Amino acid sequence: MQKKELSKLVLTTLLTGSVLWGGTAFAAEENLQEFSLDTMVVTATRTAMTVKETPSTVEIVDSKKLEQTQAKTLHDALKGALGVNVFNDFQGRSNVSIRGSESRHVLIMVDGKRLGGEAAYNSANAWDVDRIRMEDVERVEIIRGPAGALYGSDAMGGVINVITKTPDKTTADINYEYGWYEDGKGAGYKGNLYLQGAEGNYSYKINAGLNKNRPYLDPKGSGDSMNFYGKQQPLSLNVGYKFDNGNELSVDFSKIKEENQKSTTSTTVMVPGKVWQDKVQTIYNDNKRTDYAITYKGSDDKQDWMFRAYKSVFDKNYKNQNNTRMTMRGKPGAWILQDPKIDTVKRTLSVIEGKDTFNLSDKNKLTAGFEYRKDESEGTRLKKPNTSLSGSSARDAFDKADINYMAAYVQDEFRPNDKWLIIPSVRFDHSDQFSNKLTSNLAATYNAADDVRIKAAIGQGYKTPTVNDLYIFWEMYAANRGSKGQFYVGNPDLKPEKSLSYELSVEKDWGDRSTVHLGLFRNEVKDLISTRWTGEDTEQHPDIYPGVTGDMIMAYENIPEATLQGVELYGSHRIGKDIYLNAGYTFLDAKDKTAGTRLKDRAKHQVTFGVSYQPENIYAWDLSFDLVSNIGYYFNNGDKSTMGNFVYETKDFTIANIMASRHLNKDTKIYLGIDNISNHQNFGPYSDGNLGRLYRVGMEYKF
User: Fold this and answer.
1) Could you tell me which of 91, 129, 376, 703 has the fewest CB atoms within 10 Å of its CB?
2) pTM (2 decimals)?
């Protein structure tokens, strides 16, 4: 889409929304769809509170929205969310950021439990948004802005909490979906079985799936598949018991296994017309994550408490394998298997936590909690400074490291009168490798009128370096033939990242049909962790990098100061009984204040728009359309000849999706849709990772 056309689209979207919102003062009041401002959320304050009254900027993706868009993964569910950017890299990994934050500054949780992923600075939640399935999900709560005072490390940019269903009856759901890219360049299927039941004091949930996709080939004909492909097998189990006094015990187990690979075929001419070499490079990226949890909770008139212990184990196994053969005068020789390059990572996250909310009075509610967390990593990507590589290659590095964390927090919800809600909070963090830190937050909601609310917040954030940040010692092979690789080296002297954030917003309602939100935000980050090329190559230091030549040395460092600030506007409106509209706009100014440059992989302007038709008759077609326009998207377009001379480009692109569904009978539903209608394609080592138009056809059966 051309910039002129895109600007026209943006203007039309905003004007349409303005007219609709402005013309609703005399509309009859009727109930909105399942999600409304009175929907209860738990992520913003760790207590049950409506969207309307919470001082945080919250967006809910409810079960109706998930069903209507046929969202199969968290990636699908986040499409069109205001200020949220989900982007892919050339390996097919999905990263998510909020308001321009780094992906590692967005905490992703399932029912309040954080996930153990790769913990890399540039891929902290890579793959996770595609691993979390939606069949068992009641809603997704999105907190835009820092939440470090309650959630500590990883929540400097925001929080995404996936809330799963609570079984109340026995049901089963089977669905199958097949999808393919434009021109048949890639295809795959997704199948899932979900069972839930409740009998007496017991309840259970079983969710099992099998996903498989085939490669998307480079249209230039190189034979290079642009992303990893293969099988994904998710499984989750939950058993719950409700005691006669109302207390609840639940046990959770989940496992996801991935078998992914990427193949590249190339031919090198040695003697024209006589001798040439064929090479097939296959990269295997097989992952497995296993999660265990036990939760005990209860409540009465005076308090609401929870105690939980859980563990998340992530295993990554990466193998780069080359097969070569020589062909002389048209006679091919035997294939020769070279020694594969092996990369293994194991991360274990163990957590014990608890909280108690005390109802001190009608005007005062106090929440106190604690958390112990142990983060352990081992594998070929680690080397501590005291580890010797004498007599071996740098590629043979293997080490172990761990960090222990302890934290305690207190939050007070104070309601001096019907107009004010004031929430101060404070958190104490201790780590065995970093100094103690006290962070605080002050937020308030002021009801200026029955239909007007003013919200404000100021808070601190704090994130310690991960084991990966401190001790990584890993070679990333060149993404392009003939280019240099990159050798990443951790920095044990890294400082924790710190932030100070401000937020001010106004919300107005027109009956139950419409609402508008206007907000200002600013996040000042100090000692932001990033990487840079040192200007040196590995062959200049053979004692440090034995056996490795031709790689650029990439060092981890702290950027003294960065600022992310902007404006966001959002509105929703219902037309008649069945048509729902929403539109939003975010302006983002993200700068490295030390260098005086923009931060890459962010859009200066983001426009979201959605419209849905939800008839009461289930045998009529249910329709939804949404788009996200990124204007002034600033990304790293690396010089592929050196991989060291980075060229930053600004591009505009729009991703739009449409979905239609209807019931064949009361139990069976069919659906079809198109993702990325405009067929936007931008993939490679430095891109937004879009692979083009995707067609989806599926069926769902409930009984």
Assistant:
1) 703
2) 0.85
